[in-house]
Amino acid sequence: MSGSKVPITRVRDEVGLILAASNGEQKRKFVETVELQIGLKNYDPQRDKRFSGTIKLPYIPRPRMSVCIIGDAHDCDRAKEQDMPFRSADDLKKLNKNKKLIKKLAASYDAFLASETMIKQIPRLLGPGLHKAGKFPTPISRADDLAVRANEIRATIKFQLKKVLCLAVAIGNVQMTEDELVSNIMLAINFLVSLLKKNWQNVKSLFIKSTMGKPHRLL
Fold first, then answer.
1. How far apart, in whole angstroms, are the C-alpha atoms of residue 162 and residue 54?
2. Among 24, 56, 67, 197, which is most buried by a count of CB atoms within 10 Å?
3. Nearest 5 degrees, angle CA 182-CA 187-CA 193?
4. CA-to-CA distance for 173 and 208, rounded, in angstroms?
5. How many Cα atoms within 13 Å fall on the side-chain side of residue 78?
6. For residues 214 and 208, what is the distance between their CA atoms, to the nearest angstrom?
7. Number of C-beta neighbours around residue 103 at 10 A
8. 77 contacts 60 by C-beta, under 8 angstroms
9. Helix/strand/coil for 23
């Protein structure tokens, strides 16, 4: 689990360069995301076990990520009070299992939370649409604070190996401080390495880059 392959001083230097460029003369009209890009080696996606893992970062990388509540009456009322987007069972029924409309719903939000009572109804009301989009809702209970749960989703990143040996995840944005970005990056790298079969021996390259900026090599 050691992060010794990438010294924290190196990460701090490169983060400093990204922030200086993105908040200086190259400042954009939108908030750039900072992405961690990973190249893997000695891995055969066809034969080796494909890994998947999620981790909650200490600082929210995508504060503007949209989260919709699929709720029972109680949770829809709570979402309304907190000015959060929501859909009720009746709203889902109105989609009438229309694949285009379900696809549109899935594309409208980055993630979904659903009342425990609604989770079992979703496949019946919507079919596999949200699941196919990789956005099947996370369950919430009556005791949960909706805003807190939504922020947990915004702070969670997922590493998943598919058919190619490169991965990219959003680990921050250029409005964060240097310390916040460094914390997120170090945690994300160490977690990824722990998922790999041969740990650091499977890591070919590590880069960080802002949306419009050039890549900065860490390894």
1. 15
2. 67
3. 125
4. 11
5. 21
6. 9
7. 14
8. no
9. coil
User: Tokens 């504060």 label which residue?
Assistant: 63
Q: For residue 21, which amino acid is it?
A: A
> Quick one: pLDDT band at residue 162, thresholds 50, 70, 90?
confident
Outline where the chain has alpha helix (H). 8-22, 73-81, 89-94, 99-108, 116-119, 122-126, 129-132, 146-155, 178-195
Calculate helix-pair angle for 8-22, 178-195, nearest 10 degrees.
Answer: 130
Cα–Cα distance, 110 to 83 (Å, whole number): 17
Per this entry, what is the length of the chain? 219
Residue environment code for 57-87, b if the CB has 16+ CB neighbours within 10 A, otherwise e: bebbbbeebebbbbbbeebbebbeeeebebb
Q: Which residue has the tokens 């309304």?
A: 80
Tokens encoding 192: 């990824």
CA distance linking residue 169 with residue 25, whole number of Å: 26
